[in-house]
């Protein structure tokens, strides 16, 4: 069974930085796209950043220039470096994997989420 485990969330003051990590475990041969989503209280879940297996990245406009996504394919791990954090970045951040090839093909897998709180 494939699982995604996030770490690195916490509380930080505005202007600070945090680094999130997400490791995929289980029998995995490849993962097409890995990404980060977030959901703030009372709001819908939104895409923050994504990265393909070849390294192509995409970002939400609200985080461009502040967040950087990267991945280590050998470790099936994705990272999100968050700099210049703002109170509006406060949310539960979820790791996502699309196109997981293992014993069977999985279209999508989600992590359990990690809370990021930015205080002003």
In short:
By secondary structure, the chain is an all-beta fold. It is built from no helices and eleven strands.
Fold blueprint:
Blueprint (H helix, E strand, L loop, with lengths): L2 E5 L2 E4 L4 E8 L2 E12 L6 E7 L4 E3 L7 E6 L4 E6 L8 E12 L2 E6 L3 E6 L1
Parallel strand pairs: 2-11
Antiparallel strand pairs: 1-3, 3-8, 4-5, 4-9, 5-6, 7-8, 9-10, 9-11
Characteristics:
mainly beta; about 0% helix; about 60% strand; 11 strands
Structure explained in plain terms:
With 120 residues, the chain is mostly beta strands. It is 0% helix and 62% strand. It is built from no helices and eleven strands. Strands 2, 4, 5, 6, 9, 10 and 11 form a seven-stranded mixed β-sheet that branches. A hairpin with a 4-residue loop joins β5 and β6. It is elongated, with a radius of gyration of 14 Å. The mean pLDDT is 96.
